[in-house]
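[scheduler] slot 2 assigned
[scheduler] job type: sequence-to-structure, two independent chains
[scheduler] chain ordering preserved from manifest
[runner] begin chain α
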Amino acid sequence: MKTCVFISVVIVLMAGIAHGQIILTPEVTGTSFYHYHYYKMRRGVNSECSSPYATHYLSSFAITDAHSMSILLGQSYQFDSGFTTWTSGIIYICQTTIDDWDWAGILKFNLQGLGNTSSNFTPYNWSARLNNLVVEAALNPGSNGKIELWDMVDEMETSGLTGNERNGAYQCISTICDGVPESGVIFTDIDVTEALRRDLFGEGTGDLTSGFILKATDYGQAWNKFNNDSPVIEISIFTPTPSPSPTPTPFCGVHLYMGRNHFTAGDVFKLRALISGYPETDGVDLYVVLDVYGQYYFYPDWTQSPGCQYFPQQGETMNPIFILTFQWPEGDFGVADNLMFWGAILDPDSAGVIGDIDSIEFGFD
């Protein structure tokens, strides 16, 4: 049975979040851009530089890249064509130059900053807003166009800039402006809850990073520059969970949950634990064990040596722990069913089990 895929996967850990409001500042801001340059020179015996005496010199290049800090979006297109005479009008030089720029603004937030606070953070009892997008400069403000905020595809939601983010739009979140805004305009209260929920609890992959793209549509010859220090995401925790989101049922111990229970190549594998202690609990040892037909592999190192991970725990508050996140790889791993994960929390001092033990079954082909 080919089941060793679990031994080498990337492990992602994250603890719960505090009541009230949490402010996230970007880990990375920048611009992902495309630049096309074209230059042609012709030499001939008339002002059109036509045959039979034309000689052509051509240079062109296209670049897709990124730079950090500045947040630019928009387009710029420049076309120059003309001719000059040479050798007393006998020879003509005709030149054509094209420069085409396309910019997209990039924001990436590291969600691991949520990991050291506590209490009652569930998939549905919070909302998130992107605030304080400040326009610093504009070309042709008031002209046609619109600005859209897009969620980034999972494989590009990594730390740093790759240069390809402008091509990595996954889903449009909101149209934040119709028309090219002028300098000084501030955009706020942009709902990004579903994008973060997907990255934290849903099908989003990669490390715990949420990425966003600011795209200019139908801008023509226009662009905007945004302040790279001002954007923030504000996360608000609700007590109780607002309708229609369900209020978590109180419990003590561990609940394990996954996005699905059967996996094939390309599926996103996410394993989460929700833990809650006794009123007097101030810390727990979390045990998660992969059971492969009687062979046991222990979180967090996924070896057969017994192991666990300590987490601070404030009494009966419910804390989500991010155990595993990866994309099921291509390859022949056989077929397996009835694989199990087991979860429990123990008192670090007495080694006694706290509350419920949980298990979850899965398979793959």
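[runner] end chain α
[runner] begin chain β
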Amino acid sequence: MLKLFKKKLSDTNKNGEEYYVKKSKISVGRYTYGYKTLNLIEYGAGKDLYIGNFTSIGPGVKIFLENGAHDNTLMSTYPFKHMYKDIFEGDKHSGSNFKNNKGDVRIGNDVWIGMDVLILNGVKISDGAIIGANSVVTKDVLPYEFVAGNPAKSIRFRFEKNEIELLLKLKWWELEDKCIKELISNLLLKPDTNKLKELILKYR
């Protein structure tokens, strides 16, 4: 388990960050915050982590960059191939107690991840999603979906389908800072389809 990073991260994140934890590449989009206290679980063969722009990460969030699951179909779940090899010589045997990695972890833009969330290996959390505090995310989360629980289940979608489609066309998080500054008065309101269409025509 790894909580500290190999290099000191900057106090601000205006341009995004990219660094490595063991063999895993960590890519963080601009203005995303909370990633400095992530508890990244990586044992040396983990996958990569990609986080988009303007994402909010609460304290205590853990992310498995390796599967981390012991194979419960075997007679023993103990990881003999990795623990006390000098005594049991488990690395000489073909079997393994660990399941294969499921892939990179991808977290989108403008995502809000609540306190003490656990995200498993291979999960994709799409743009605009919200993850409730203390949730265990075991499968992909759709755009603007609110999920919570252990395992995390869909509670509702934040907006109507047509509003979500327009927000995904606008992709305000990709715009230059000066454009986002102009948009803030709209971003702090509930979505309006007519206004969203106007903004798409102006900025896209």
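[runner] end chain β
[qc] chain β: Residues 1-66+101-158 form a domain with the UDP N-Acetylglucosamine Acyltransferase; domain 1 fold (CATH 2.160.10.10).
[scheduler] slot 2 released
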